[in-house]
Amino acid sequence: MDDVERAAAMALPPEVWDFIAGGSGRELSLAANRAAFDGVFVRPRILNDVSACGTEATLLGRAARMPVAIGPVAYHRLVCPEGELATARAAKAAGVPFTVATLSSVPVEEVTAVGGSVWFQLYWLRDTGRTLDLVRRAQDAGCEAIVLTVDVPWMGRRLRDVRNGFALPDDVRAVHLGAGPSTAHRRGDGASAVAVHTAETFSRSLTWASVERLRESTRLPVVLKGVLAPEDARRAVEHGVDALVVSNHGGRQLDGAMTAVAALPDVVDAVGGACEILLDGGVRSGTDVLKALALGASGVLVGRAPIWGLAAGGEDGVRQVLELLHGELTDALGLAGCVGVADARRLETLVTSVGGSVRDSGGRSV
Q: Which residues act catalytically here (predicted)?
């Protein structure tokens, strides 16, 4: 996957690369996402027949080829003319769900027309009526879940974009928010035009009452993305949420927020199996997927890696990324003595901290 990342960096204009690759502030949480995975070790099991090792899983009630979904990323047409259509076709071919974003550069109806399993990521807008219209539009288009992002009252201070004065090119637009140019296209020194646009558009008043309103407004599964605290996880279950995504938004919101890997075990314990739990942030390999499963996740979202593939090779590039993940996951499962995904969730883990201490999967120091 590092090779794909390097190819994407070479293919993209520097300011576009910074928009995709960057995090907020000093990028501490961005770097910690990878370090957290590197600090997780699993205890393999032996003498199991893994000659028919399988990666199949169920995500939000639907069969998937592996416990992986493509997470929401804005503006795919920044890196490829076909944008989200190419990514959705690759996801369909790989047998995994694709999440189309509120800030998609291709309409949701065109994405779902590709076929496959499609989820819709929702930002709560200042205009609640407009927000619920988007929910109905996604439902009517054939989306299978609504993924409400709950950690963006406004965009984190992403210094790479600020320094670049980043703005969208004229031919890339948030098509779900209007047909014409917006403040996201108005370049200014020392400011991110995309951040200005989202500050104007996103609600700062998203609350549990909003979650209730969403739950009442759709028959689709409701997923909350951006949960790190076990108290919030329990409350989400009380509000009838179907799944949680444990995430620090890829290190792009609060710099210094704990990693999803660190937060996951407590969230799993808090929920007690009452809903599915997905992990997002820093997933780069099939071994990372195995570690997430061993820590209690139902599956993972991958965001940046498919975009690297899209930038480096269009639809074929995304397919290669997903096939790489599938092959690596098969390898990791077999070498860990797992016949399938369910076995991975029973593996013991050792998690090393930055300070060097080690904790096992029961939370005990060892």
A: 249
Cβ neighbours of residue 294 closer than 8 Å, sequence gap 6 or more: 40, 42, 344, 345, 347, 348, 349, 361
Task: Report the alpha-carbon distance of residue 76 to residue 318 in Å, rounded.
Answer: 12
Average pLDDT over the chain reads: 95
Tokens coding 209 = 């009452």
Under the banding of pLDDT at 50, 70 and 90, the label for residue 364 is: very low
Work out the number of other CB atoms within 10 angstroms of the CB of residue 366.
8
How close are the terminal C-alpha atoms of the chain, in Å? 32
Annotated binding site for FMN: 72-74, 121, 149, 158, 225, 247, 280-284, 303-304
Strand order in the sheet with 348-352: 40-43, 348-352, 358-360
* String of DSSP letters for 237-260: HHTT-SEEEEE-GGGTSSTTPPPH
Domain ranges of the chain: 2-360
Instruction: Identify the active-site residue in 76, 197, 249, 326.
Output: 249
The burial class, CB within 10 Å (0-12 / 13-18 / 19+), for 228 is: buried
| Active-site residue flag, 249 | yes
Place of tokens 């996604």: 138
Binding residues for glyoxylate: 123, 249, 252
pTM given for the model: 0.95
54-71: average pLDDT: 97
pLDDT in tens, 6-48: 999 999 999 999 999 999 999 999 999 999 999 999 999 999 9
Domain covering 2-360 assigned CATH 1.10.10.10 in the classification: no
Asked if 119 contacts 91 with a C-beta cutoff of 8 angstroms, the reply is no
